[in-house]
């Protein structure tokens, strides 16, 4: 389904992603963990075609998405929706219009200029908001919502694209624990109920272990771990984050019992 092959991104003398390789054979919720600067965000931006690669290929359903240009590239970005840490909503615009922005790539320039949406799209947007538990906020300005609610609006906007893959770049890093749980629960349900692939950069090990089917650990641009949550022991975590990272010494190979905050 998805093959990332020898993916490398250099910025001058610095290598942000260093020969990354992994294969996803069926939809899963995949967490990517590692220190700040490990290459997590760059990897997702390459996958979405927001950043070009230096070397390597990304094959999705047999097609090299890094070779796409023009309308085909925009089509891929619609199939591969992106969710950001800071939501990227239009603050003074109402919630439902923000969600409808997920259809921009499929609309004419004239419809976009005059903010015209088909009735069925409006109904679909409200249905998605209802699914995420925030339909009552559809007419409110986005800036009036809490951070957790805004992130659910961003998820709704991504779902309006009807994507095959959702990429989430630190989707809960700026949220309090309660809202972080709500957002992660939503991403998990989207994967399970819709059969969509979700790839999320995460900043705590307990979140990765609780929600993900598979975890990829990155260090200095390289993938140094690729396995199940059960395989993510304290020793493996030190390999990812460095020997100076502080973890629960009593953790076993099957559990890390306490929430473990680590550098993003």
Automatic annotation (TrEMBL):
It comes from the Bacteria. Keywords: ATP-binding, Cell inner membrane, Cell membrane, Membrane, Nucleotide-binding, Translocase, Transport. The keyword Metal-binding does not apply. InterPro entries: AAA+_ATPase, ABC_transporter-like_ATP-bd, ABC_transporter-like_CS, ABC_transpr_PhnC, MetN_ABC_transporter-like, P-loop_NTPase. GO terms for molecular function: ABC-type phosphonate transporter activity; ATP binding; ATP hydrolysis activity. Residues 2-245 form the ABC transporter domain. GO terms for cellular component: membrane. The keyword Cell inner membrane applies. NCBIfam families: ABC_phnC (TIGR02315). This is Phosphonate ABC transporter, ATP-binding protein.
């Amino acid at each position: 389904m998805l093959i990332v092959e020898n993916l490398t991104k250099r910025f001058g003398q610095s290598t942000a992603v260093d020969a990354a390789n992994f294969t996803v054979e069926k939809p899963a919720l995949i967490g990517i963990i590692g220190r700040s600067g490990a290459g997590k965000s760059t990897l997702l931006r390459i996958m979405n075609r927001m950043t070009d690669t230096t070397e390597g290929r990304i094959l999705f359903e047999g097609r090299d998405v890094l070779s796409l240009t023009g309308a085909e590239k925009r089509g891929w970005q619609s199939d591969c929706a992106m969710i950001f840490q800071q939501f990227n909503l239009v603050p003074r615009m109402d919630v439902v219009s923000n969600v409808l922005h997920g259809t921009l790539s499929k609309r004419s320039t004239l419809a976009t200029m005059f903010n015209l949406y088909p009735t069925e799209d409006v109904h679909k947007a409200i249905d998605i908001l209802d699914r995420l538990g925030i339909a009552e906020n559809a007419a409110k300005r986005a800036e009036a919502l809490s951070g957790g609610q805004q992130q659910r609006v961003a998820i709704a906007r991504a779902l309006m694209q009807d994507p095959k893959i959702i990429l989430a770049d630190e989707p809960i890093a700026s949220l309090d624990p309660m809202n972080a749980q709500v957002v992660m629960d939503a991403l998990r349900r989207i994967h399970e109920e819709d059969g969509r692939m979700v790839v999320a950069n995460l900043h705590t090990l307990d979140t990765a272990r609780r929600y993900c089917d598979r975890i990829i650990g990155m260090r200095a641009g390289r993938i140094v771990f690729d396995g199940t949550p059960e395989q993510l022991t304290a020793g493996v975590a030190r390999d990812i984050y460095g020997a100076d990272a502080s973890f629960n010494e009593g953790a076993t190979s099957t559990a890390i019992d306490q929430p473990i905050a680590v550098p993003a």
